[in-house]
Design goal:
heterodimer, A: five-stranded mixed sheet, 19 helices, B: about 180 residues, alpha+beta, 4 strands
């Protein structure tokens, strides 16, 4: 059986509501934390080895320890619930099913960071989840877990939900902060990092929904126990949202270190590739991470079975590996066109580029056009090198990582599927329009 | 042009979520409410009015409204059919779904039917890739879409929708007040 520390109570009827959540051990971590010092909590989180679950995988305890303690300005905790990385839908699931788990994690984290006002920045499209969170927050206020003098400890905390309005870039933490200030979501130059100057130029920590929820089991179990789950520096569990050509799309909590083959084929998880087709490629951690062909996805270049962990998925660097990213697991079967899928992703990044940095603003559009030209049957062999050249001039040359996120899919598709590009260019008639209309009628 | 009393009440509560002097932060929720109250889109007059409510310059509202994809800056039909077109939905047929809807409604993406009933819009990843393809209509996610369900959705709209529906609605504004 798989180890679950986040979704263990998800099937309990009524767990969305406060009473059932509390009766099943909810808010115990707050009781424990409020008796500790903030520094002791940060120490537990450091010991747990918990890493940011939004995509970057940065150690959470370390991020917290950067917060400026010398300033007299207020501290803020902001939950990044702007989930919009293509392939990722785990935070939506967690907030919808277990809203109190996020609130509980945010109370502990706010206390550790000496924040007295915290925000959940949720993407605007998820309005129905916004309602769920507001209802749960009202319940938590009523029960005395939020507001003034929480549980008689003298600690005050207000928690609010803030809606976005449709912009992928607001998932980048400084873009999110700008948006929360009521502006366009243009990312800021770093340094200064948000821990020094974030929301309204005050010390701010921005953490992903799943990261903040994971603080609850970290507190309940203790950092050392939590660190025993998982493998190596990939401690704990991770929510993976699986989609694409598989039999059982959905959100799964896995213990980090699970073999990818088991995740893909076991009936407990994805249940194998749909319609008995062959696996062509996998984008393992959201659209931004490098795409891998089936053979490199299942086994590393050294021939070892690949595991669902930060290190194993990254084994081989970008030459033969990828990233765990946000856990957006997109499976493509043999009928999928890597080139056309790449065009779709590139079009997405072009659409979502905020436009501040020329390499990203211009480069994403240029790559989209070249890919469109190839798919339109007018490609030249030199276009492949042109694409390579453009992506290499975006990566690392922008204020925020959206530029990298747009470059990596292009680089990896050329690296591993150059033949597919060549085939399209040499023989435009081979560009078969795969129609899914039949599936849409049958489904 | 004036917000309803319910909307003004909700706006004053929302403004209190941010520290003194930082009420500009309320701009996104206030624009959502404005879109719900004034016909499903943000006209220049609506944006100017929002600026007065938040005590900021009109240009501060324009630059925000034009950045976020949920805000419509031109008039829309009563029902804005938003089809996700990003990777995972596309892998499972979103392109065919969009083509089907274009044929069925006799309009292209971005256009509105002559009777003012439907606007067809494509949007980016809605975080529902496991139940792709997906259509959002108002605040509702319609998941695992297929041709039959799409037809039914359009028929339901024709039969039941009299007032424009936007993401935020009067119902939502009421919920916010509770």
């Amino acid at each position: 059986m798989s180890k679950k520390v986040l979704l263990n109570n998800i099937s309990v009827p009524g767990i969305q509501g406060y009473d059932v959540y509390r009766a099943n051990g909810g808010y115990a971590s707050v009781e424990k934390a409020l008796k500790m010092t903030p520094d002791a909590i940060i120490e537990e989180v450091k010991k747990s080895g918990l890493r940011g679950r939004g995509g970057a995988g940065f150690p959470t305890g370390m991020k917290w320890s950067f917060i400026d303690k010398k300033t007299s300005n207020p501290h803020y905790l902001v939950c990044n619930a702007d989930e919009s990385e293509p392939g990722t839908f785990k935070d939506r699931y967690l907030m919808e099913k277990l809203p109190h788990l996020l609130i509980e994690g945010m109370i502990v984290s706010s206390f550790a960071l000496d924040a007295h006002t915290s925000y959940i920045y949720i993407r605007g499209e998820l309005l129905y989840v916004y309602h769920i969170l507001e209802k749960a927050i009202a319940e938590a206020y009523k029960a005395g877990w939020l507001g003034k003098n929480i549980m008689g400890t003298g600690y005050d905390l207000d928690l609010y939900v803030h809606p976005g309005a449709g912009a992928y870039i607001c998932g980048e933490e400084t873009g999110l902060i700008e948006s929360l200030e009521g502006k366009r979501g243009n990312p800021r130059m770093k340094p200064p990092f948000p821990a020094i100057q974030g929301l309204w130029m005050c010390p701010t920590v921005v953490n992903n929904v799943e990261t903040l929820a994971a603080v609850v089991p970290v507190m309940n179990m203790g950092g050392e126990e939590y660190a025993k789950i998982g493998v190596g520096k990939s401690t704990g569990t991770k929510l993976i949202s699986a989609c694409g050509h598989i039999n059982k799309p959905g959100v799964y909590e896995i213990e980090l270190g699970l073999p990818v083959e088991e995740f893909l084929n076991s009936d407990e998880y994805c249940g194998g590739v749909k319609n008995g087709r062959k696996l062509k490629a996998v984008v393992a951690g959201g659209s931004s991470v490098p795409i891998l062909p089936a053979e490199l996805f299942l086994k590393t270049a050294k021939g070892e079975p690949r595991l669902m962990s930060y290190e194993s998925l990254a084994d081989g660097g970008f030459a033969t590996g990828t990233m765990l990213g946000s856990g957006g697991f997109i499976v493509m079967d043999e009928t999928a066109s890597v080139v056309k899928n790449l065009w779709n992703f590139t079009r997405f990044y072009h659409h979502e580029s905020c436009g501040q940095c020329s390499p990203c603003r211009e480069g994403t559009g240029w790559m989209e056009k070249v890919l469109h030209k190839i798919l339109d049957g007018h490609g030249k062999m030199s276009d492949i090198d042109l694409l390579w050249d453009v992506q290499s001039k975006i990566e690392g040359r922008t204020i925020c990582p959206l530029g990298d996120a747009a470059a990596w899919p292009v680089a990896s598709a050329i690296r591993h599927f150059r033949k597919d590009f060549e085939e399209y260019i040499q023989n435009p008639q081979s560009i078969k329009e795969v129609s899914y209309l039949a599936d849409l009628v049958e489904a | 042009m004036k917000f309803s009393d319910d909307a003004l009440d909700v706006i004053s509560r929302i403004k209190k979520r941010y520290p003194e002097g930082k009420q500009k932060s309320a701009i996104l929720p206030v624009l959502h409410i404005a879109q719900a109250e004034f016909g499903g889109w943000l006209s220049p007059e609506t944006m100017d009015y929002v600026a007065t409510i938040l005590n900021i310059l009109p240009v501060e509202v324009y630059e925000v409204a034009s950045f976020y994809s949920m805000f419509n800056l031109t008039p829309v039909g009563k029902c804005v059919i938003e089809v996700c077109r990003t990777g995972p939905c596309w892998l499972l047929g979103a392109e065919d779904l969009v083509n089907y809807l274009q044929d069925k409604l006799g309009i292209k993406v971005g256009e509105t039917t002559p009777d003012g009933m439907f606007t067809l819009k494509t949007v980016e990843c809605l975080a529902a890739c496991g139940t792709a393809p997906i259509i959002q209509l108002g605040e509702t996610y319609h998941e695992n879409m297929n041709i039959e369900k799409a037809d039914k959705l359009l028929a339901d709209c024709r039969a039941n929708i009299k007032e424009p529906i936007s993401h935020w609605s009067k119902k939502h504004i009421k919920k916010e007040q509770a």
